[in-house]
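SEQUENCE-TO-STRUCTURE ENTRY
===========================

Backbone structure tokens: a row of integers, each naming the local backbone shape at its residue.

Task: work out the structure tokens from the sequence, keeping to the layout shown below.
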Amino acid sequence: MVLVGRSGRTYSIDVHAPDAANTQLCFNSSGAAASTSQNTYRAVEDCIINDISIAASPTATGCVLTSNGNVIAGGSLRWANQIVTTVNRKPLAIPVRRGDFIGGLQFA
């Protein structure tokens, strides 16, 4: 996941998407995310989620991004559209406020 802060700084956050529907995404800002990573990432400044890419599509067909436990408007993503090798993947523009906890729940 790539976020661009109001300051212009870019944050690259590793996301683990378990291979099952109805599971939470896991986030790690300092290394590879795994099933044991935290299920939220806290934004350190006002940001825009610019991109989320996935190496291979899991069993789930997509996810809903949340902020502080609430669904983010425009935060419903289809994994097929976010595959790393998709050359025409559209940039996202999902706003997140400083201090918000970003999460995600996969759907079938």
Observations:
- The chain has one domain: 2-107.
- Strands lie at 2-5, 10-12, 14-16, 26-28, 41-42, 47-51, 62-67, 70-78, 94-96, 101-107.
